[in-house]
Amino acid sequence: MILGGGTGGTLVANRLRRMLPGDEAEITVVDQDDQHVYQPGLLFVPFGLADPEEITRPRHRQLHAGIEFRCAGIERVDLGSETVVLDNGTALGYDVLVIATGARLVPEETEGLNADGWPGNVHTFYTPAGAASLRDALAQFERGRIVVNVVDMPIKCPVAPIEFSFLADWYFTKRGVRDQVDITLVTPLDGAFTKAVCNRELSGLLTDKRVDLVTEFNTGEVDATNGRLVSFDGREVGFDLAVMIPLHGGQEYVNRSPGLGDPLGFVPTDERTLQSKARPEVFVIGDAADVRASKAGSVAHFEGEVLVRNVLHYLAGEPLEPAYDGHTNCFIESGFGKALLIDFNYEVEPLTGHFPSRVGLPLLRQSRLNHAGKLAFQWLYWHALLPGRDLPGVGSAMPKRGKAGLPVNGATAAASAAAHDRAS
Q1: Are residues 18 and 91 in the same domain?
Q2: I need a labelling partner for 58 at 20 to 30 A (CA). Which of 167, 322, 400, 417 fits?
Q3: In 79-178, beta strands by DSSP E
Q4: Does residue 323 lie in a domain region?
Q5: % of the chain exceeding 70 in pLDDT
């Protein structure tokens, strides 16, 4: 039983179907709707570079033959009886449960926002409807201050607010009104990104593109009437148009399932095996897990390889592989036909160099090749990643070749990176 038909749930279902004959396993995917959204594409919608309909396809059509799809909400998981109760009262039993229901937006946790409708000068691009509404607002915006605000972490795709800021610089430059538009990124972090080398590069780009950065700002209220963000410590940031990345949490059914989740609705998970800490027959993938890895689509891809192997080990009564290393890979669109690429894991921060080896895409450097890679990934997503195929040269483990400053003669990655920086 796989709960969630998004990136993680779909690729796990398809991989398992390929490895387990139909007479050995019944595979069922449950989701509350039949609309699979290519979420990286939402970033492009506000700038007229994509349309919500173009990045949305039926969930059931992404699943291989022999996989049952049930379109229903989830009421709760009963760990004791190994059943999933749907919102219509139907109880479905399982031998193995994979939780892949991702994260949800909870704007109502912030004063001034709610789940049903936001004020006219406050938007988000984290939903198809929100991205389309923001597109219309940006098209009419010619003068004033745009504030991109991350309310709190964790969020889906942590680099997306930075990408939005970069693309806004490109968008208003293209329209010839950039000098009349101020762009400010407001974040609860102490920098643009959490890792030192990457933070330095991205902060420098923000400065070059005249994007102001406000750090350690914990938003307590969005005052749309007076156009201001108010932090819990009383600081204020004014805006004419706010682009909000609201608080994220786990799915509501997790909180209705005793013993399954944490107070935020995420599922405690072994970060190496991806087995839940609640029960051995429960596994977790993607944004639903509480692991240290970023909540990004690439994480679900890399986790999927390990999780499927461990489900097969569990069914065979074999020890699980502690094989997932936190590998994360993200293109960062920087505007004007260029993008950066970062590649890292639990232990190694994003570094300069090349991916996936000494010859390949440049890391932490703007290039048109990276931009082409980001655009090409949409095709790979629908035709390779979701069907559960392996991508040549891109495995679940983070490649070490090609990265500047990785361990040399026993030195730690951080020490080597520091030495590399001093030498530069």
Answers
A1: yes
A2: 167
A3: 83-86, 91-93, 97-99, 104-105, 122-123, 144-150
A4: no
A5: 96
Alpha-carbon distance of 75 to 257, in angstroms, equals: 8
Contact 299, 306 (CB under 8 A): no
Query: pTM above 0.85?
Result: yes
The CA-atom distances, in angstroms, between 212 and each of 83, 183, 208, 339 are 50, 6, 10, 20
Whether residue 364 is contained in a domain is answered as yes
Look up tokens 């399982």; give the residue. Answer: 94
Task: Please indicate, yes or no, whether residues 157 and 181 belong to a single structural domain of this protein.
Answer: yes
Quote the number of domains for the chain: 3
User: Are 91 and 112 part of one and the same domain?
Assistant: no
For residues 177 and 242, membership in a common domain is answered with yes
Q: How far apart are CA 214 and CA 241, in angstroms?
A: 16
pLDDT tens column, 347-403: 999 999 999 998 899 999 999 999 999 999 999 999 999 999 988 778 899 999 999
> pLDDT tens across 121-142, in order?
999 999 999 999 999 999 999 9
Q: Any idea what DSSP says for residue 384?
A: I
Each residue's pLDDT tens digit, 412-422 = 444 434 443 44
In contact, 334 and 303? CB cutoff 8 Å = no
Residue 22: what pLDDT? 82
Domain range for 123: 107-247
- Return d(Cα 56, Cα 112) in angstroms, integer: 30
| Secondary structure letter of residue 368 according to DSSP | H
Co-location of 19 and 90 in the same domain: yes
Give the Cα separation of 172 and 239 in Å (integer).
17
